[in-house]
Design a protein that fits this description.
Layout lengths: L4 H21 L4 E12 L6 E6 L2 E8 L1 H6 L7 E4 L6 E6 L12 E6 L2 E8 L1 E8 L13 E6 L2 E6 L1 H4 L5 E3 L4 H7 L1 E7 L6 E3 L2 E8 L1
Parallel strand pairs: 1-4, 8-11
Antiparallel strand pairs: 1-3, 2-7, 3-6, 5-7, 8-10, 9-14, 10-13, 11-12, 12-14
């Protein structure tokens, strides 16, 4: 069945209006603010600790709705290079010119334009492990031996935080369970100011005389 002339005109008008609507709604650039986390590029030096404040910035972009809809937000981030920065407090400029979201999306503004980078040196020391035994043992009942392996562990942190730490305690251990199983692998409990603890678990071995 042939379409009448007025039907053809209606179809053409619909297609034209749909195209115009798409160009206006989806093709017209709009401003949008995106939140982007900051990724720090620094020397792989475990002796340095880096803290960024703020840890995210707002990126104002000019893009079409179609571009924004297809944007992978997981890839929206900003990288700053701190490889040449010594320990201390630094004001670091956000490299707006290096931000590339897509080939056609334009970055208009980044806020804030500077962030604070705090770089601190990390120290380490070795401390003995102390067994946190659940049971109270009388001196006359000590007919067994408990061995901690390793007896010493390494803690890492800022020197002013770890210099007074003399030992690391294990989680609470039951002597009855040790007698039954002969050995246990137990977690260590690091103080809050310790950044790293190696190893995080020790082995407790029970042996009777």
């Amino acid at each position: 069945m042939k379409l009448k002339r007025e039907h053809k005109l209606k179809i053409i008008a619909f297609l034209i209006s749909a195209t115009l609507w798409y160009l206006i709604v989806w093709g017209k650039p709009v401003e949008k603010t995106l939140e982007a986390p900051i990724i720090v590029k620094s020397a792989q030096d475990k002796e340095l600790y880096v803290e960024i404040n703020p840890s995210t910035v707002a990126i104002k972009v000019l893009a079409t709705r179609s571009q924004l809809r297809n944007l992978n937000k997981d890839q929206v981030n900003i990288e700053i290079d701190l490889e040449k920065y010594p320990p201390g407090i630094h004001q670091v400029r956000i490299p707006v010119e290096q931000i590339r979201l897509t080939n056609t999306m334009k970055v208009k503004e980044v806020s804030p334009s500077f962030v604070t980078a705090v770089i601190r040196k990390i120290s380490q020391k070795k401390v003995p492990v102390v067994l946190n035994l659940k049971d109270h043992i009388e001196q006359r009942d000590k007919r067994f031996k408990l061995v901690i392996n390793p007896p010493v562990v390494t803690i890492r942190g800022f020197w002013e935080d770890i210099k007074d730490i003399e030992n690391i305690y294990t989680e609470e251990v039951s002597l009855a369970r040790l007698k039954k199983e002969k050995y246990l692998n137990v977690e260590l409990i690091p103080p809050q100011r310790v950044l790293e603890l190696e190893p995080r678990r020790v082995k407790i071995v029970y042996s009777s005389f």
